[in-house]
Write a structure and sequence with these properties.
The structure is a single chain. α2 crosses α9 (209-224). This protein has nine helices and five strands. It is 51% helix and 10% strand. The chain has a single domain (16-224), classed as Rossmann fold. The radius of gyration is 17 Å and the shape is globular. It has a five-stranded parallel beta sheet with strand order 2-3-1-4-5, sandwiched between helices.
Length: 226
């Protein structure tokens, strides 16, 4: 069984004045936010848009729906599964391991890779800022530098019960997930954190939105100044 390793976050001090300066320089930055539902990708993404003046944000869930009728049925059937349940297309295990759940999500990610790359390439061509968010930006499967992104980070909520509550918030009125679904969601998040540690990509502990945004802005400033 894989051990969950969570890095203690470091929140560098970022002044509002420095944020305004960076806004002008980084309007075309491209950020990939990974994490399962409940980690706060949408909330943090909205905050980053406002902070950095980024004009576009995309969710992998909407991208999956967009290409559904354009790909072979076998791939479409796989993509229709929730990320934490995609393994069911190749395995009927009643007690899936973390690796099985991750592998299912990775198969979805590999189908979506060309779509992700096209979105990033269009943003670069147009010179526009872009935030893309979803469970499918798996460290080690998705290489931010191969994609031409400035940053890939995994958002995390270490308290898994809180994560499950967030995933079932009123913002998703028609989401009907069982306790088993939420357990698999939690396992997938453990795997994303593990892969981030393994591939030395940042994990942002999202227990305070403003601190999370500050952390990501600091990471972005560091990456774009290299």
């Amino acid at each position: 069984m894989l051990r969950k390793v969570i890095k203690k976050p470091h929140y560098p001090t970022v002044s509002l004045e420095s944020n305004r300066t960076q806004t002008k320089k980084n309007r075309s930055v491209i950020i990939l936010l990974a994490g399962v539902p409940g980690t706060g990708k949408t909330t943090v993404g909205n905050g980053l848009q406002n902070r950095l003046g980024i004009s576009h944000r995309l969710s992998t869930g909407f991208l999956r729906a967009t290409i559904d009728s354009l790909i072979p049925e076998s791939n479409a059937r796989l993509l229709r599964k929730e990320a934490f349940a995609a393994y069911e297309e190749t395995s009927h295990s009643k007690f899936p391991t973390g690796q099985q759940i991750l592998d299912g999500c990775a198969r979805q990610a590999n189908i979506l890779k060309p779509v992700f790359k096209s979105c990033v390439a269009r943003a670069r061509t147009e010179g526009i800022g872009l935030i893309m968010e979803g469970s499918h930006f798996i460290p080690g499967i998705i290489d931010p530098y191969e994609f031409g992104a400035d940053l890939l980070c995994v958002l995390d909520v270490p308290d898994r019960e809180e994560l499950k509550e967030r995933a079932m918030s009123a913002n998703h009125k028609h989401r009907q997930w069982s306790d088993f679904d939420l357990s698999r969601l939690s396992i997938l998040q453990d795997q994303l954190v593990y892969m981030a540690n393994r591939n030395e990509l940042p994990i942002v502990i999202n227990t305070d939105v403003e601190q999370s945004i500050n952390h990501i802005v600091a990471l972005l400033n560091k990456n774009t100044s290299m």
